Amino acid sequence: MTGLVLGLALLVALAAAGWRALRRVRLARRLAALPGGSLETAMVAASFRDIEDEVGRRRCPCGGRLSLRGESSREHAGRRYRVAAVECELCERRSRVYFDVTGLFH
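and the corresponding structure tokens:
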């Protein structure tokens, strides 16, 4: 009887872990699909203030607000990008938002 209860508890724990993993994958896909979620969908920034404003308006798919945790620069295929590292205040998911800032330097 004890073995059955432990086996059932293990099965429930594995199902919960699988559900959480699936949820994380779905959330990552939704974040990547948003404008600015990848280099291919980078948002054009007319000023560096646009980056701060967009991060302030943006919400995580879970509904939480995003906080800016840092920024970096990147060049790819002759274009310049600003990459904002963000973290959801609710689910603590970390992601990046890409901005095309090529026009700011010409």
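(Above: one complete record from the training split.) Residues 2-105 form one domain.
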